[in-house]
Design brief:
elongated, Ferritin, 242 residues, 9 helices
């Protein structure tokens, strides 16, 4: 019985070996271990699609730069340009005359007023120059040089004050400040209501109460009365909101 079992097993092994040799043949090789588990590419794989061609002829980034480039400043009306030029010259004049009064006047109330003109008109002048530049104007175009012909009126006033001293100088300076600020208040009031450029109108409206305060202060000095800034500030604010 055992011999028969061994014979059957031997016959089965020989048959399996023959089948294997016939499958691969003399020129075939069994698959290598490295090929097992590898995924072969198929014809269904998707090839990345290139981005659509830009037919506008612009280089990358040019469209973004064009979209974010600042717009050129809008052209000012003739009236707005005149306002800027006149207001700037007046501010420079107040600063220059204030320096002279601060140097030569003796009365402390007048010296304090002169210092206020230097500080507050100097600040207003800087603000206006910065705003004018955003509108396409500059100091060369406006001829804000103190020696320019457009500043001749200021030089004449300075020459008048330089000839005086003491009480006469103080009275003349204060009288000039009343006249100058009456004109300035009228100029800024008109611009705040009738100007074409909204930013200039807004700036004139913000500056007007300060000019009204300067005028009231000069009027008090001229009349020899004490100046009450709080009362004037409330009156100026009421005038500006009307």
């Amino acid at each position: 019985m055992h011999r028969l079992d061994h014979l059957v097993i031997s016959l089965f092994a020989a048959t399996s070996l023959a089948s294997a040799c016939q499958k691969y043949g003399p020129e075939s090789e069994p698959p290598s271990d490295t090929a097992i588990g590898q995924t072969q590419p198929t014809s269904d794989e998707v090839t990345p699609t290139p981005p659509p061609e830009d037919m506008s002829g612009q280089q990358p980034g040019e469209a973004d730069e064009a979209a974010t480039s600042p717009e050129p400043p809008k052209q000012l009306s003739e009236g707005d340009r005149r306002f800027i030029e006149t207001a700037a010259r007046n501010s420079m004049a107040e600063v220059e005359l204030g320096k002279l009064a601060l140097e030569k006047c003796k009365k402390q109330q007048v010296k304090d007023y002169a210092q206020k003109m230097i500080d507050e008109h100097g600040k207003a002048h800087e603000e206006l120059m910065a705003l004018a530049q955003t509108k396409g104007m500059d100091s060369q175009q406006m001829k804000m040089d103190a020696g320019a012909p457009e500043m001749a009126f200021m030089m004449e006033k300075r020459a008048q004050l330089e000839k005086l001293s003491g009480t006469k100088l103080e009275k003349q300076y204060v009288s000039m400040m009343v006249d100058d600020h009456e004109k300035a208040v009228a100029l800024f009031r008109e611009q705040s209501t009738s100007g074409s450029d909204q930013e200039l109108k807004d700036w004139a409206s913000r500056t007007l109460p300060k000019l009204e305060e300067h005028l009231a202060h000069a009027q008090a000095l001229k009349a020899g009365k004490p100046y009450k800034p709080k009362a004037v500030a409330r009156a100026s604010a009421t005038t500006a909101t009307k």
